[in-house]
Each structure stands twice: as C-alpha cells, then as structure tokens.
C-alpha cells in the first residue's frame, strides 16, 4: 500500500495495526520504521486533511509515533514531524498529549 501512493490508507493501516502491547522490541522497531516512512512520504499540504479523517484513537497512536520519531531524528524528519504534531494537536487537543505521555504502552 505504501508503494502504490495511497499514503492515507497506508497510514491508517499502520496506525490501526500498531503493536503497542507487544513485548517484542524488534516488532515495535519495525512498525516504527514503517510508520515513519509513511509519515515522511506524505506531503505537508496533505497532512491536515489526513489527520482530520482519523478517528480519535488513531490520533493518539499517531502522536505516539510522532514522539518516537523525535527520539531518532533523521535529516529533515524533525520539521516534518512537527507539522504532524501541530495538526494532531489541533484535532486531539491537550488530552491527546496527556494520554500519550501517561500511557504505558509505547510505540
């Protein structure tokens, strides 16, 4: 799905299937890498529309991956992730950030 240009569907799929409860760090790392590739492949002009289309639960998962992405910066990724953070915050509000930071199930 990622390679066919259907970025919104790919993002929804990776967020819906996030292995947040997994104890296998390798699986979580692979999911993080895939999710970051999808997030970074989406143009800045598309972010708002995509975030608006997500369910509140998926906004929280998205925010978890944004914060994890901040932990492993790559060239150009931080600015793009900040755009995702801004749009997710505008939809999810402070509650989204509080839920992510207080949740023991990490991305």
Automatic annotation (TrEMBL):
<dbReference type="GO" id="GO:0034314">
    <property type="term" value="P:Arp2/3 complex-mediated actin nucleation"/>
</dbReference>
<keyword id="KW-0963">Cytoplasm</keyword>
<dbReference type="InterPro" id="IPR036743">
    <property type="entry name" value="ARPC5_sf"/>
</dbReference>
<keyword id="KW-0206">Cytoskeleton</keyword>
<protein>
    <recommendedName>
        <fullName>Actin-related protein 2/3 complex subunit 5</fullName>
    </recommendedName>
</protein>
<dbReference type="GO" id="GO:0030833">
    <property type="term" value="P:regulation of actin filament polymerization"/>
</dbReference>
<comment type="function">
    <text>Functions as component of the Arp2/3 complex which is involved in regulation of actin polymerization and together with an activating nucleation-promoting factor (NPF) mediates the formation of branched actin networks. Arp2/3 complex plays a critical role in the control of cell morphogenesis via the modulation of cell polarity development.</text>
</comment>
<dbReference type="InterPro" id="IPR006789">
    <property type="entry name" value="ARPC5"/>
</dbReference>
<dbReference type="GO" id="GO:0005885">
    <property type="term" value="C:Arp2/3 protein complex"/>
</dbReference>
<comment type="similarity">
    <text>Belongs to the ARPC5 family.</text>
</comment>
<dbReference type="Pfam" id="PF04699">
    <property type="entry name" value="P16-Arc"/>
</dbReference>
């Amino acid at each position: 799905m990622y390679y066919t240009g259907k970025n919104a569907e790919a993002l929804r799929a990776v967020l819906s299937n996030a292995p947040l409860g997994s104890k296998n760090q390798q699986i979580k790392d692979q999911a993080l890498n895939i999710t970051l590739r999808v997030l970074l492949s989406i143009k800045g002009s598309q972010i708002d529309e995509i975030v608006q289309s997500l369910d509140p639960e998926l906004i929280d998962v998205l925010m978890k991956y944004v914060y994890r992405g901040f932990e492993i910066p790559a060239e150009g990724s931080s600015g793009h992730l900040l755009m995702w953070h801004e749009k997710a915050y505008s939809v999810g509000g402070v509650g989204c950030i509080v839920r992510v930071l207080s949740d023991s199930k990490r991305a």
